[in-house]
Inverse folding.
């Protein structure tokens, strides 16, 4: 990875390392810079990041953005220590250990913003030694989590929590099917659904991941491309949590119980699916969509994981300067759980 010195808008002459994406699409555009870290304005907090998490969102941005002349600091997930506090903030002190809520403009669950603003593009994100965020995005780090665990938790765990409970209305004893268990959000959805007393089936393309899922308590595992209806032996599914899309979507309507729900939050295998409307209305299925979550849900999610002592499944943690290798692993799709960076 290339290493360059550059100056950004600064108030204090203190060098900090930061991973920047620029010039070319894909993770080849990542490079390590040295900048001078910013001071927080009124209502903002500067956090010295201890660990940050990778998300598929970062890959999509690097692949698809056209404003390549802009240097961008990606990263939506992070946890760290408060380094300085802007004017007007009293409840947060320098030295507090915090975790960052990545949805910047969504406070109340029932007030969904027209466009979600997410930390890490266009605003500067967490792949840096320091990040400045609005104080409304700061919560106390759950003490039982390590820095690495807290750093990879926010976006994926929040998405899983809202998908299962706010949108999916999961009840104890229901049968939930989670697709692509290797993914970050899927591993949280799996642990949360088990904690809520659900029966959980997971899918994966990889036999190794299916065996791993059985070891950690999955009730059933399915190969992504097998006939799910046949393999489930007529055990209907109440709720499907999916981010894969077209590669698996046609199977959903064959395994759902009447009145079943699908909660969709991703497009890992493409953007378009074909649905039989007659199957949909005859069985009274609900297809629901979700994205991230509100500040209220972020707090509820933290309470839920703390109450059930849920710990993120960490696939691998890389030093900051090895961000390219970390993203190559995510691109290859070989991970089981979360990939993180340590500062
Ligand atoms: N809307 C939101 O708020 C939101 C939030 C977070 C993530 N997302 C989206 O959700 C998706 C998952 O993100 P993530 O970071 O949790 O996971 P991830 O690390 O990107 O993994 C997704 C998993 O999906 C499976 N998969 C991917 N491509 C596939 C294909 N062509 N056919 C079959 N299976 C495939 C793989 O599981 P196996 O290896 O086990 O087969 C993979 O591990 C991404 O599209 C992301 O953009 C959306």
């Amino acid at each position: 990875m290339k290493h360059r010195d550059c100056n950004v808008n600064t108030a204090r002459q203190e060098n900090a390392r930061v991973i920047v994406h620029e010039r070319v699409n894909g993770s080849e555009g990542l490079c390590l810079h040295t900048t001078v870290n910013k001071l927080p304005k009124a209502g903002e907090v500067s956090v010295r990041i201890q660990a940050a998490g990778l998300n598929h969102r970062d890959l999509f941005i690097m692949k698809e953005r056209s404003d390549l002349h802009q240097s961008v600091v990606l990263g939506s997930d992070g946890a760290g220590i408060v380094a300085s506090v802007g004017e007007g903030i009293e409840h947060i002190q320098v030295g507090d250990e915090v975790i960052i809520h990545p949805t910047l403009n969504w406070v109340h669950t029932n007030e969904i913003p027209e466009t979600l603003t997410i930390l890490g593009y266009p605003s500067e994100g967490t792949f840096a030694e320091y990040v400045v965020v609005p104080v409304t995005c700061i919560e106390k780090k759950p003490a039982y989590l390590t820095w690495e665990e807290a750093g990879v938790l926010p976006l994926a765990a929040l998405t899983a929590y809202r998908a299962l409970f706010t949108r999916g209305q999961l009840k104890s004893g229901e049968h939930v099917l989670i697709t692509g268990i290797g993914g970050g959000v899927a591993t949280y959805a799996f642990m949360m659904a088990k904690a809520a007393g659900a029966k959980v089936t997971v899918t994966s393309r990889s036999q190794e991941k299916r065996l791993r899922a059985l070891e950690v308590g999955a009730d059933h595992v399915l190969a992504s491309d097998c006939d799910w209806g046949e393999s489930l032996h007529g055990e209907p599914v109440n709720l499907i949590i999916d981010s894969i899309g077209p590669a698996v979507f046609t199977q959903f309507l064959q395994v759902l119980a009447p009145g079943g729900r699908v909660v969709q939050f991703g497009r890992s295998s493409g953007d378009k699916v074909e649905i039989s409307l007659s199957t949909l209305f005859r069985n009274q299925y609900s297809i629901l969509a979700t994205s991230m979550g509100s500040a209220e849900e972020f707090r509820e999610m933290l309470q839920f994981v703390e109450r059930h002592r849920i710990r993120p499944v960490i696939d691998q943690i890389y030093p900051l300067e090895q961000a390219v290798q970390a993203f190559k692993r995510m691109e290859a799709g070989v991970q089981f759980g979360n990939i993180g960076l340590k500062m």
About this structure: Residues 104 and 117 are 5 Å apart (CA to CA). Confidence is low (pLDDT under 50) at residues 2-11. The domain at 158-289 is CATH 3.90.180.10 (Quinone Oxidoreductase; Chain A, domain 1). The longest strand covers residues 44-53.
